[in-house]
Amino acid sequence: MMIKPLDQAVGSIDAMKAVFARDMKVAFRQRQDLLNPLLFFMMVVTLFPLGVSPEISFLQEAGAGILWVAALLSVLLSLDHLFRHDFDDGTLEQLVLQPQPLFLLVLAKTMAHWVLTGLPLVLLTPVLGVMVHLDGNSIAILCLTLLIGTPVLSLIGAIGAALTLGLRSAGVLLSLLIIPLYIPVLIFGTGTVAAAAEGAPVGAYLALLGAFLVLALTLAPFASAAALKVSLSNS
Amino acid sequence: MSEPLLQAINLQCERDGRELFRDLSFSILPATVTRVEGANGSGKTTLLRILAGLSNAWAGDLLWCGEQRARVRESFLRNVLYLGHRPGIKPLLSPLENLRALMAGRRPMGDKALTQALARTGLAGYEQVPCRHLSAGQQRRVALARLLVADEPLWLLDEVFTSIDASGVAAIENLLQERAAEGGAVVFTTHHNVQIAGTKRLVLTPGAVGYDD
Questions:
Q1: How many domains does chain A have?
Q2: Nearest to B89 among A89, A98, A232 (CB)
């Protein structure tokens, strides 16, 4: 039996597509899990006017912040599932043993996570933005910041999810690890909308958010892949 | 005599402050079946995970085709198939979808070949049923269907006979024997009474290690 040369291995892009496709398929077989972060997002945003103040001036001022915080928390809630099921059923072991670079496969998984949690939040934002009386321009800017910001949340979150994989009660530790890293994204995300509301230019804010995204895209998959190997090694 | 596929030199492993084995040296040659034996907790699974590259908690040298494994990692991963305790089957996907996903990163195959492999493991008619509706043994058979389409020269099989019925065990015995005859190498662990002619034994006992050719 011959040793197979490497050029007979599947290319990285094809392998990434396969990982992405499988995650999508699994997610759509389990729609309840898909709805959870969205429902959480909607509930937090709808409860704020009831719990704090329904006044239009308050909501206009705090609306963007409320939506950003709610989006951040709902991404955080969904993170534990990112690798957990794969870890439990053994597909994660098989993923790590694929001949393609692991960071690319992890990137594919993280992209699937964003499409399934971050992107729906962005799509829901215009509706909830109207509900908290944001004007059209603010809503557009808010959507843009979330569009750039939520992938960062998924990418950074994947590191935490991978690190805490071997632990039985990972939830609290995951939040403690990840929230400090989310804070800059939150500050610049809401800052952009606030600047836009005052009529100030937002280019610099958006550029910084974009820089976060590029940084996360290039570094986070390596960190997540390394963390996954450590977690699997200790299991 | 052919070159060893995998060579372990002075492997040492400690887990939770307890030494599982030390100075463990052996070679896995093509066309051999090796059975790793030992009591519960003697480190059989750990050894297989180390050989597969899943565990980092070891010292010593592991050579793949004569080269340090870390240096030829991609080639190693492409040529080794590992099946662990956890079968790597997604409960929400059907056997066919599972098999397709598992093969996608290694050797994509048409549905026809995969369906045939599933049929040979006794899963004909279950191709489209989500795996969570299958029994434990049937789920394991989905994972085993991979062996029928696998082209990797080295197989590392951890407890593959678990929850498989008698006829299934016999079929796997045959498969492993054929595999060795074709020139592949198999390393497996089991607590079942499995008879494969010419099986080498690698016995893990705390403190002492025996390798019987």
A1: 1
A2: A89
Query: In A119-191, which ranges are E strands?
Result: none
Comparing C-alpha atoms, which of A151, A166, A20, A152 is closest to residue A84?
A166
Positive or negative, the Cα torsion across B68, B70, B75, B80? positive
Looking at the complex, report in whole angstroms how far the Cα of residue A129 sits from the nearest Cα belonging to chain B. Answer: 36
**Residue A36: inside a domain, yes or no?**
yes
Label each residue of A57-84 as H, E or C.
HHHHHHHHHHHHHHHHHHHHHHHCHHHH
- What's the pLDDT score for residue B212? 54
A174 occurs within a structural domain:
yes
Residues A125 and B131: their CA atoms lie apart, in Å, by 37
Q: What is the ipTM of this complex?
A: 0.91
Question: Per-10-residue mean pLDDT for chain A, 235 residues long?
Answer: 67 94 94 91 93 90 93 93 92 94 96 96 95 93 96 97 87 91 95 91 94 97 96 87
Nearest to B79 by CA among B67, B92, B91, B94: B67
Q: Which domain holds residue A153?
A: 12-234
| Percentage above 70 pLDDT, chain B | 96
Residue A99 domain-assigned? yes
- Report chain B's mean pLDDT, rounded to a whole number: 89
Using CA coordinates, name the residue in chain B closest to A11. B105
Domain contains A168: yes
Is the Cβ of B162 closer than 8 Å to some Cβ of chain A?
Answer: no
* Residue in A22, A25, A232 nearest the CB of B54: A232
Structural contact between residues B131 and B98, judged by C-beta atoms closer than 8 angstroms: yes
Residues 6+ apart with CB under 8 A from A233: B54, B55, B56, B57
Minimum mean pLDDT among A73-82, B35-44, B100-109, B202-211: which range? Answer: B202-211
State which amino acid sits at residue A111: M
Rounded CA-CA distance A230/A165 in Å is 10
